[in-house]
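We emphasize that the prediction below concerns an isolated chain of 201 residues; any contacts that depend on oligomerization or on bound cofactors are therefore not represented. The input was used exactly as deposited, without trimming of termini.
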Amino acid sequence: MTTDRPSPLIADCGGLIETIALSLPAAWFADAGIGFTVSPLAPIGNLLLTLPRNVAVLLLVDRPCLAAARSWLDRLAVKCQVDLVTLDEPGTVPHPWIQDMFHVRLRADALTPELVSSGESAISQGLAARLGFATAISDVILPGGNQLVGPDYRLVGHASLQGGAESARSAPATLSRRWLRIEALDPRAVFSFGYKPEDLG
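Result of the prediction step, given as a token string:
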């Protein structure tokens, strides 16, 4: 039996990756060990080795780590295009979770994408300068692991839409305002996903 009714499920897919940014904290170079073989840099190096030639990688590092980063890259026979992006002091790479530091959006009235962060961010500013993007500040920033972005939609985790641990005590009006603020962050339509059936009740 067949039906013409469209599926209620949203495809979690997008275009092929063309550019990827990674942030490498200074501590990773300080603790790299002999030949950078015992270090968090090892799995990053393995990732770079798997990427094809048509993928561009931007590696964000602190300026004092530039020489060490170049030495590490020289030891890798990568095929992809790798550019080192240094942060102007006193800016530093705080942690490797770059997906939690900013949101990428393209407004209908904008010519270039924006990197939106919760405050003055050296990571956002350095990356935006390298890519020719604009920067913006918002009080609504979602953890990268709790938002999946497609060409014309965003899947946002139930916890972020509800406001986290306080959701059980939040009034419906408060939850509605949070949803509207998340919608205003980006013109793409917002949908919710959850890991438990009650999340979507």
